[in-house]
Amino acid sequence: MAGTVKAAILRGRKTVETVVEEGRKKAEKVVEEGLNTVDTVVEVGFNTVETVVVEGRKKVESAVSLGRKTVEHALLHGRSTMQAAVLHGREDIRIESVPVPEANFGELIVSVGAALTCGTDLKVYRRGYHARMIVPPALFGHEQAGTVVEAGEGVEGFAAGDRVVALNSAPCGQCYFCTRGQENLCDDLLFNNGAYAEFIRIPARIVAKNTLHVPDHVPLEHAALTEPLACAVHGFEDSHPHPGDTVAVIGGGPLGLMILHVAALAGCKVIAIVKHDGQVEAARQLGAAHVVQTASIRNAIRETRALTEKNRGVDIAIEAVGVPESWEEAVEMVRKGGTVNFFGGCALGTHVSLDTNRIHYSDITLRATFHHTPAFCRKALDLIASGRFQAGAFITGHAHLYELNRVFEKLMKRGTEIKTAIVP
Ligand SMILES: [Zn+2]
Ligand SMILES: [Zn+2]
What we know:
Helix content: 40-55%
Radius of gyration: 37 Å
Largest sheet: 7 strands, mixed
Structural class: alpha/beta
Bound molecules: zinc ion
Distance between the termini: 124 Å
Strand content: 15-25%
């Protein structure tokens, strides 16, 4: 009996103990779980707040950015039209109201600071078209520098307010020629026209490959010389000159003068062969050691040779006129082992007749440099920015866009003008 009572007491105690123990565990669990729950709630709440703040900030930023773009766009396009020169055909340029361009992906809209007249534009004005560069009716002009007013989505490195010179073309970078460093011969060279206008659209490829920042100390009209100068430096360096070489430059147009100036800066002795009175003084000022002024090719050859020791001929002759007779003339001016560069492009379908004997037995190198590459464009702007290149000497006049026709008529008469800066 006693055993039964003791067992009952023991079991009762154990039951009480179990109840107490289990109860404590439950209480502990409740406290623990409750604490975890609070933590979880706090944690989740916290994340939600952070997300809300971040997302909110993003929304505000986006709103500010979009708002600013809209305002910029509104400011620019408040004027929905601009004045621009439109080429309609032979000697037919009209200043017209056309829509202000808008920047698409990768593009820039530049407010033109100065656009320069150019021999190519003069040719196009006379002929009414340029097979590769421009087919009318079309916006006209290709040498300019200005200030960015709008940068399209995806543009890197340029923003509104930047002073830039955007070149007239850009190579594809992928074709046979581009991958061999001959980007001037690119199968898909992209040209841009429209410099004689208040604003110009710069295509994405030119923005990415051939648009350069203009240093603060360089006037925009000087920076606009980058394109022709790039051609001149390319033509000169392609002739493989050495300091001290005697270089004959045939032609006193803007590019002839530029090449002779570049050659003089490189330490060459330059003989300039020019036709017109106005070109004589310019050639001297830009560094020609001798100026031969004649309209006769025979005289030009004879007088140029006479300026070299024993009538030997010049080391390098660069033709910068673009007529077959003067290509032939250039070949007659160089010494044995000399180099001729047919730099001036002639009209389609023209031919030359060359003395094969002389070319072979005198071991003459013939070259014909065309256009520029992105590397030469950078070199040209560096030369302008260096201050060594007399940029100011090439800009002999200023005119308003409305005077463009009068300017071209004057250029046709070949006076003393080299380049006129057209200011819109
Ligand atoms: Zn040009
Ligand atoms: Zn290419």
